[in-house]
Fold these 2 entries.
Entry 1:
Amino acid sequence: MVHDSAGGPAREEVRERGVARGQLLGPIDLLGDLGRRRLTSGHGPVLVGFAAETDDLVKRATAKLEQKHADLIVANDVSRSDAGFDVDTNAVTIVGGGGAETLPLQSKSRVAAEVLDRVERLLLPDPHGSRTHR
């Protein structure tokens, strides 16, 4: 699931909450909310977040991983001109419970496949019969 809360609430949300037309709600921390719900209930989906950073990728992504109670954070160095926005390639660092792994510059579809491979590993049962994610 992807969330970018640059805009206001959906019309249905406004109607349900009784918010006056034109009144904006604050930003929604969807990843953090899902992480807290999963932490409270003891189960839930695999959670992958994304971080656009300009420095200290691993440090910032690790902090976000812990704050949001996510399984993985995929960090992009948005200061690079050859990766990320407006180009067909990307180089990311994937941070999870086992540490950080930096992927080399490659096509965005290859990066997506690499991220999905990590998610698949989280979904595989461990030797004790439970899924390996939190």
Entry 2:
Amino acid sequence: MLLGLQGGTNVSEAWSSCQNDRALPEERVSGCTSVISSGQETRANLAKAFNNRGMAYVREGKIERGILDYDKAISLDPYLTLAYNNRGVAYFKEGDVKHAIRDYGYAISLWPDFLEALMNRGFGYISARQFDRAILDFDKVLGRKPDHPNAYFGRGTAYLGKGEYERAIQDFDLAIKLKPDYASAFFNRGLAKRRHGDLAGGEADQTAAKALNSKTDAGYSISP
């Protein structure tokens, strides 16, 4: 028989909340905390509970508490790939691009086909203005999943940063073909067209972007 926890919640119910991606963050935090304090779990399961609670904290905007939980998860299970990627996301949200890239790299070293980590590191490299490295990561994603609109967008943004506007426009074309309502791709394609001398085409794309999403110009773009 399972022991009672926190007002009658048993371990099975706590795990249900802890593992539920759709649960409210506070519900997930409560469930994972019950699992962690139960004294009934293996190190591997405790690592997963800390990782899941870290995700809930980050969703709540409690980034530092999330990072502490990811640290604990990794100390319990150094091969927990998701924890490295998730900690990288948390660092990126804090503006710590260097540590974000490092953690994405750890995740990829453990799981070379981890597309989410490759995508995240690609955008991290863009933020660090290491455009050639970003392109290599997006190339790897597209080699495994050639219909990935976000990878075309990311690679296009890296080419935009390098000043290779024709190649950037080609990638944004492909992103939009795969995802016709991709406002950020319209916006960055407009930026590439403007810098390539097509002012009318650039204005049309950026107008289309704002029609799709009025906040697009606050999204992912490259500064001059």
